[in-house]
Design brief:
alpha/beta; FAD/NAD(P)-binding domain; 7-stranded mixed beta sheet; 9 helices; globular
């Protein structure tokens, strides 16, 4: 029985990004209507939460929204290139125009609660709604991570998280300490280096990847080898897959790999180990720079080895490349730095985000607050997630896997509705 005082939708989708729109598109193809609630505007994170020079790290051909692939339905002319921020939003806007979703922008969802009689009560900034099923498509980037000791840093030193970064002009003159070497950290390093700034980089444990190898982009080889088809259920080390930081490389200037050793030699980037503490103008680092560089290179060489094995198995005629060699290694580990003495006037945090699902009242979260599901389907009937990393495959949190995940989830929702699993 539905609450007559509240508007009702068979499915409510929370989040108006590519994941939310993709599920809405697939649901529409099964004849199921839905409402998308987006607290900002559609595709907000792409428009507003990326820096000016942002570009994709994976090639454009991997942009495969449901029925709207970059190099087919969209008619993109550079499948092996890497779209810039405005090009990405143009692609997304064009996808949104292929169907007519019921999108409610600037609506905040404040609480989702299962109803005793079935379905859910959804409290929003425009009032209460009810629905039979809910799809959470908000992603995992709710709360920017900054360590507690950041508060002990001298207030004269500017601090900013990568979510607020747009360009170097936001920063005062002087050097910058960038903390984190995932995909964001190394690309921001390049932004500051191009601007002629002194860059200091706290190197974490993120792995790195080749860009081009043996005549092709490394991601092309890995796709052909079936690497991206591996599911979390069949992965040899699922815990590592889920918890590992993304491999760093760049799509800038047509694509390049990032070897931090070379950036130290060629561009003067000062490298340190993982940041451990701050107080006043002083920063303390762990003595793990050499280990972190070696681990990143081990990942890099491992990917090359996978590609070599695929080439050999398939009997492909591909050009040979010289073995990897280190161009530099730290002689000592610097564990302390006075930022003021080093001319550092700002700190840029690039150490990621935490999800925040406290507004969902359902017993589907682990001790760390992360949702438990299988391919996005939780144990709470009618509650689903989409757009998260390793929902099923490596591509689940990216453009590559969203079509497969959305179609699977839409079919599951359709089956539940047809079976009367949820009574609205």
């Amino acid at each position: 029985m539905k609450d007559n005082a509240a508007p009702h939708s068979p499915v409510i989708i929370v989040g108006g990004g590519q994941a939310g729109f993709s599920v809405a598109k697939c649901l529409s193809e099964t004849g199921i209507s839905s409402v998308i609630f987006e607290r900002h505007g559609k595709f907000h994170s792409w428009r507003k939460n990326r820096w000016d020079s942002f570009c994709l790290v994976t090639p454009n051909w991997q942009c495969r929204l449901p029925g709207f692939h970059y190099d087919k339905e969209y008619g993109g002319s550079d499948p092996d290139g890497f779209m810039l921020k405005d090009e990405i939003t143009n692609y997304l806007d064009a996808f949104a125009e292929t169907f007519a979703p019921d999108l409610r922008e600037h609506v905040e969802v404040r609480r989702v609660t299962p109803r005793p009689e079935g379905g859910f009560r959804v409290e929003t900034s425009i009032g209460e709604w009810t629905c039979d099923q809910v799809v959470i498509a908000t992603g995992g980037y709710d709360t920017p991570i900054e360590p507690g000791y950041a508060k002990a840093l001298d207030p004269a030193i500017l601090q900013m998280h990568s979510v607020d970064y747009r360009n170097v002009d936001q920063f005062p003159e002087g050097g910058v300490l960038i903390v984190g070497t995932g995909q964001s950290g190394v690309q921001l390093m390049e932004d500051f280096t191009r601007a002629g700034r002194d860059v200091h980089l706290a190197v974490g444990p993120a792995p790195r990847s080749p860009r081009r190898y043996r005549g092709r982009d490394a991601t092309d080889w890995l796709y052909d080898a079936g690497h991206y088809a591996i599911t979390i259920d069949t992965h040899p080390d699922p815990v590592k897959a889920i918890t590992q930081t993304n491999h760093y490389m760049s799509g800038r200037d047509g694509g390049k790999e990032i070897d931090l050793r070379r950036w130290h030699l060629d561009h003067g980037v000062e490298l340190y180990g993982s940041l451990a503490d701050m107080s006043g103008t002083r920063a303390a680092f762990l003595p793990d720079l050499g280990k972190n560089l070696d681990d990143a290179d081990r990942s890099y060489v491992g990917i090359r080895t996978q590609i070599d094995a695929h080439i050999a198995r398939a009997g492909i005629d591909a050009p040979e490349e010289a073995p990897f060699t280190k161009v530099w290694a730290p002689e000592t580990e610097r564990t302390e730095l006075d930022l003021a003495e080093a001319g550092i006037t700002s700190v840029l945090w690039a150490i990621g985000f935490r999800p925040d699902y406290r507004w969902i009242e359902a017993d589907v979260f682990d001790a760390r607050g992360k949702p438990r599901f299988h391919r996005g389907v939780t144990d709470q009937p009618g509650l689903h997630f989409i757009g998260l990393g390793w929902l099923n495959t490596w591509g689940s949190g990216r453009f590559l896997g969203i079509e497969e995940d959305s179609r699977y989830l839409a079919n599951r929702i359709a089956a539940q509705i047809a079976a009367g699993a949820i009574s609205g």
